[in-house]
Design goal:
The protein is an alpha/beta fold. 43% of the residues lie in helices and 8% in strands. The strands form two sheets. It has a five-stranded parallel sheet with strand order 1-2-3-7-6, with helices on both faces. A two-stranded antiparallel ribbon has the order 4-5. Helix 10 links the parallel strand 6 and strand 7 (279-284). Helix 2 (63-88) runs antiparallel to helix 12.
Length: 393
């Protein structure tokens, strides 16, 4: 029996390999690419205040806008220092300082129009004063006088939110409602790094993405959720990547670079206002003071870490840049500092006045129509107050 036929396999030539390579289908585009943030933080000034090469997507704001940004940052820092002092004097029950985060606090406000809405956390007192809200009204909540010292509808500013991330859902709902009625209002929700671990954050971002609600979610990543470092909160390359899974474009920015913060937020707001849906921005910054006056930050971070951030001071950084541009001089800097001192002195004087508090107002606005149980509780308090007055008489 003869040997079986053997088919000879043709040799693969260099030419045939090239043909095969050419005939392979191109790799499909990465569907996540439009939503991914830059690998490096957007930065337009170095820590010394020297301008860096222009960024094609984030042009620097006009100089006159940056001068106003500087003025409000100086006033904001002085307000923050005064509020901290008032806490030590017992004039405030608690105060969460935002010192070190001035570029984020004020830059976000300048990126908005007056008719836009702000959804702050408990740390945004500086941002609210930058929005033009009376500082005594801002501190009403932290003083324990009332739930909110200003009229949210008039100021287009929601009450400061203490529960983490609930404002993310509120912002999405309001923004969707405004768009539904044909208005081009944008809502900006402030949140810290810890809030991105809460369910309300994910629900709010997802709703906003699905319904294209014009919201900017602005994460101030100040390295700690109270005492929990970022490394214990997420394994993602950065918090900005949390937007990708919901189809939300995201960006990272140096939160201590005031020029970059305003440039990035200006584009994010324009994106939302144009009807393209939400935008997520993560600003990398640092909280110089403890979480609140009740916190001992030395338990979880050392002095060297805090000192290393002193060289990235956003106020000094912007001042240096504007001086080099000829937009600031000693006279202007001194005038702004004097305004800040007058602002703090007026706040200090007004906060010395003790407010008149009616305990029965605790029961106001709990429900649109008070429940029988609430009415009963209110009457019990009323009776106790009357008995105390009779006893004192």
């Amino acid at each position: 029996m003869g040997a079986p036929d053997v088919q000879e396999v043709p040799a693969v030539t260099t030419t045939s390999r090239a043909v095969r390579r050419k005939s392979r289908p191109a790799a499909p585009p990465d569907p996540a690419r439009p939503f991914l943030p830059t690998t490096e933080q957007i930065r337009l000034l170095d820590p010394a205040g020297t301008p860096l090469p222009a960024h094609p997507d984030y042009p620097a704001p006009p100089v006159e806008t940056l001068v106003e940004l500087y003025r409000r940052m100086v006033l904001g820092r002085r307000f923050d220092l005064q509020a901290t002092a008032l806490t030590k004097q017992g004039r405030l029950a608690v105060y969460p300082s935002a010192r070190g985060q001035e570029a984020c606090q004020v830059g976000a406000i300048l990126a908005l129009r007056d008719e836009d809405w702000v959804f702050p956390t408990y740390r945004e007192s500086m941002a609210l004063t930058a929005r033009g809200i009376d500082p005594v009204e801002v501190l009403t909540l932290l003083r324990g006088d009332w739930h909110c010292g200003y009229d949210p509808a008039v100021r287009r500013t929601a009450p400061q939110c203490t529960p983490l991330a609930t404002q993310c859902v509120h912002a999405a709902g309001l923004a969707y409602g405004e768009a539904y009625q044909g208005r081009d209002t944008v809502a900006l929700a402030f949140l810290g790094d810890g809030a991105t671990s809460e369910g309300d954050f994910h629900e709010g971002v997802n709703f906003a993405a699905v319904f294209k609600a014009p919201v900017v979610y602005f994460i101030q990543n100040n390295e700690y959720a109270i005492s929990v470092p970022l490394s214990r909160q997420t394994a993602a390359p950065s918090l900005a990547y949390k937007g990708v899974g919901y189809g939300v474009p995201s960006e990272r920015v140096d939160g201590n670079d005031p020029v970059a913060v305003l440039a990035v937020l200006t584009r994010a707001v324009a994106h939302a206002r144009a009807g393209h849906g939400p935008f997520l921005v993560e600003a990398h910054t640092y909280r110089m003071e403890p979480h609140t006056n009740a916190d001992d930050a030395a338990r979880y971070r050392d002095a060297d870490e805090v000192a290393s951030w002193q060289d990235r001071d956003p106020v000094v950084r912007l001042e240096t840049y504007l001086r080099d541009r000829g937009a600031l001089d000693d006279t202007t800097v001194a005038r702004v500092a004097a305004q800040a001192e007058e602002y703090a002195a007026a706040l200090r004087e007004r906060m010395h006045d003790k407010p008149t508090v009616d305990p029965l107002t605790l029961f106001d606005h709990v429900y649109a129509e008070p429940t029988p149980q609430l009415v009963e509780q209110r009457e019990q308090v009323r009776a106790e107050l009357a008995a105390d007055q009779e006893g004192a008489g």
